[in-house]
């Protein structure tokens, strides 16, 4: 059982191309339930899952993010993925969420010291459950990078995010656009994440 679990964890990979196919409610609910049972600091359970399936809302968020990133400049030492978002937005046609069946934003209290950590635990649980259900998923950072943007926050408040919350991560979720319709499960060798024994 332990070996099987480790192999399952190793088989989780990110999906960045999705079929235009909606998710069955049972599968979406199972992914969300896995996230809701993630550990949290002091068992706080303060992560708010905002599930966006509406294509118009997804398109509006993509346009707002593109506008915000296009207004930025790439600076020395900028995280490479964020710099990639800025460059792509300046070229135009940038869709940060890869057109998934659902985008699940994880929001938490902005003044809570474990906000990002708790959201990360929720996201990992959801990614593992997605893999178990033959769904593709990928962690989405862009809304976290823009969580001080007043226009985007106002729109998220209109969708149900509380004013005391900010987004600390997201998950694009759907059916992978692959030849067999399944996620890529080829484990990649580790080149980092060093371990030191004391």
Can you tag this structure with a few keywords?
single chain, 198 residues, alpha+beta, NADH Oxidase, four-stranded antiparallel β-sheet, 7 helices, globular
Provide an overview of this structure.
The protein has helices spanning 2-10, 25-36, 55-70, 80-91, 115-132, 142-145, 150-159; strands at 48-52, 102-109, 136-140, 165-174. The chain is of the alpha+beta class and 198 residues long. The chain has a domain at 13-54 and 96-174: NADH Oxidase. A four-stranded antiparallel sheet has the order 1-2-4-3. The two termini are 28 Å apart.
What is the topology?
Elements: H1 2-10, H2 25-36, E1 48-52, H3 55-70, H4 80-91, E2 102-109, H5 115-132, E3 136-140, H6 142-145, H7 150-159, E4 165-174
Antiparallel strand pairs: 1-2, 2-4, 3-4
Helix pairs in contact: 2-5, 3-4
Summarize it.
With 198 residues, the chain is α+β, with helices and mostly antiparallel strands. It has helices spanning 2-10, 25-36, 55-70, 80-91, 115-132, 142-145, 150-159, and strands at residues 48-52, 102-109, 136-140, 165-174.
């Amino acid at each position: 059982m332990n070996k099987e679990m480790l192999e399952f964890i190793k088989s989780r990979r990110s999906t960045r191309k999705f079929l235009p196919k909606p998710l069955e409610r049972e599968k979406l609910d199972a992914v969300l339930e896995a996230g809701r049972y993630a550990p949290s600091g002091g068992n706080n359970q303060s992560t708010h899952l905002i599930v966006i399936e509406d294509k118009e809302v997804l398109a509006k968020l993509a346009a707002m993010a593109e506008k915000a990133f296009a207004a930025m400049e790439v600076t020395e030492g900028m995280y490479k993925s964020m710099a990639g978002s800025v460059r792509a937005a300046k070229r135009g046609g940038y869709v940060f969420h890869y057109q998934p069946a659902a985008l699940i934003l994880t929001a938490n209290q902005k003044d809570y010291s474990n906000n990002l950590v708790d959201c990360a635990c929720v996201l990992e649980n959801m990614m593992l459950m997605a893999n178990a259900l033959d769904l593709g998923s990928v962690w989405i950072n862009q809304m976290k990078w823009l969580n001080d943007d007043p226009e985007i926050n106002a729109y998220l408040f209109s969708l149900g995010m509380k004013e005391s919350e900010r987004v600390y991560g997201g998950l694009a979720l759907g059916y992978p656009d692959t030849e067999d319709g399944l996620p890529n499960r080829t484990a990649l060798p580790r080149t980092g994440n060093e371990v030191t024994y004391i």
